Amino acid sequence: MDKKPVTVGTKEGLGAGVVGLGILFMVMPSFAQKISDALGGSSEPYAILTGAVLVLGFLTVLAGLAVIITKLTDTEEE
Asked: What are 14-26's pLDDT values in tens digits?
């Protein structure tokens, strides 16, 4: 009966923030294309940006999920 209630802690908040950042990275290329079209730029830098941002976004989402899934012990004193 002395079980500690399950709550959302800083670890889960950090993980959710990192996942959100990864999603933001994945959306950036479409905005970059819209800016490039508005300014009349070429599409070659867009392709490079797309590849780099998708890789960064994928790795960021994986890092966030790893933080959420990892069972870390909290060192809070009651």
From this structure: 788 888 888 888 8
